[in-house]
Specification:
Length: 265
């Protein structure tokens, strides 16, 4: 969708609309939709300038894109990245979350830890964000909902395919150009959640099959679902079907990141 489409949305109507922002190292995406419409009315993706720091890219876009400076009914901000971990809801202690996060990752300079509560899954997701980036976003949108990109995926996937009645294990894969998200569930309980960067399709095949074996999924009875589009998706499907009987592709609007699409659901 051309940039003018998102800028041409009536500024007088913005307070009735929802703005969703996805921030990744490979680029920033923006979508606008009304609360009554599950499909975005406008979408825009902007590549980042690799020579600039993340925060500099962010500030530059806010100075260039008029629609970002309008008031909205709701603002959702997704932080795309692999620095996240989940803990059981009944074991979550906000005072201990920095320590828990530090057990899983070497802390980056100027990084703070935020969290998203997923009551429907009885887990809390911890994720890291640069302190300056967080401060800048809050200054622009004080009431924004900030979450990891994996948070809406967990909530959505765990409710898919009759999950409330089906207790079998399932694996869901969200495909991106440079990374894949792997989410595995038993009923609505997450049993494996992680993101991996890759350079070749063989890397994706390795990660998927290795985790399939690691969590003891059955090649003949458990289901694997793929969402998203990459150039070698057909080859990926073909290779996976050599080892896993039930492999399915879920159709979506491939021009918009799936984690952004389901924010409107």
């Amino acid at each position: 969708m051309p940039e003018r489409a998102i800028n041409d949305i009536d500024s007088n109507q913005s307070e009735q609309l929802i703005l969703s922002i996805r921030l990744g190292t490979d680029g920033f995406s923006f979508a606008i939709h009304s609360p009554s419409n599950k499909q975005p009315e406008a979408f825009l993706h902007k590549e980042t300038v690799s020579s600039l720091p993340f925060i500099a890219n962010l500030k530059q876009l806010f100075s260039e894109l008029d629609f970002l400076n309008r008031p909205y009914k709701q603002v959702n901000i997704l932080l795309a990245g692999s620095r996240f971990t989940i803990v059981p809801l009944n074991m979550f202690d906000e005072k201990q979350m920095d320590s828990v996060f530090g057990y899983n990752y070497l802390r980056k300079e100027n990084e703070i830890v935020l969290y998203n509560i997923l009551n429907g899954n009885d887990v809390v997701l911890l994720f890291g964000i640069d302190k300056n980036v967080h401060q800048y976003l809050i200054e622009q949108y004080p009431q924004a909902n900030i979450c990891s990109h994996i948070t809406p995926l967990i909530a959505y996937f765990s409710g898919c395919d009759g999950a409330e009645k089906d207790f079998s294990r399932k694996m869901y894969i969200a495909l991106h150009e440079q990374s894949i998200d792997i989410c595995c569930f038993e009923y609505k309980r997450p049993i494996f959640i992680n993101s991996f960067e890759y350079q070749h399709i063989d890397d994706c095949i390795y990660y998927i099959l290795h985790i399939w074996k690691q969590i003891d999924l059955n090649q003949e009875t458990n289901n694997l679902y793929l969402i998203g589009t990459i150039p070698d998706k057909e080859r990926l499907m073909k290779e996976l079907k050599r080892y896993i009987l039930h492999v399915y592709a879920i159709k979506t609007n491939d021009k918009i990141p799936f984690d952004m699409q389901i924010l409107a659901v």
